[in-house]
Amino acid sequence: VPWRSTVTDLLFAGGVDTFFALLEKAEKIGIIERKGAFYRYDGRNFRGKSELRDYFSEDPSGLDEFLGKVK
């Protein structure tokens, strides 16, 4: 079907960022709470999506746990 549009997050020198799509899914199913620009996961508060992504990049075991809950 012509004339469809999409919104995708791109990372400089990193390509398409799939984490933000998973973050939105986690928010919809209640794994992550969002209030304005703030996110809450596992008792911790994060300011913005980027801070939450940075947290998971520093904690691979936490990322595995998160991905298990989302998928």
Structure characterization notes:
Helix content is 45%, strand content 21%. The longest helix is centred in the middle third of the chain and has 11 residues, at 19-29. It has three helices and five strands, in the order E-E-H-E-E-E-H-H. A hairpin with a 2-residue loop joins strand 4 and strand 5. The chain is an alpha+beta fold. The strands form two sheets. The protein has a three-stranded antiparallel beta sheet, with helices on one face. It has a two-stranded antiparallel sheet with strand order 1-2.
Which descriptors apply to this entry?
5 strands, two-stranded antiparallel ribbon, globular, three-stranded antiparallel β-sheet, 71 residues, single chain
List the helices and strands and how they pair.
Layout: E1 10-11, E2 15-16, H1 19-29, E3 33-35, E4 38-41, E5 44-47, H2 49-58, H3 60-70
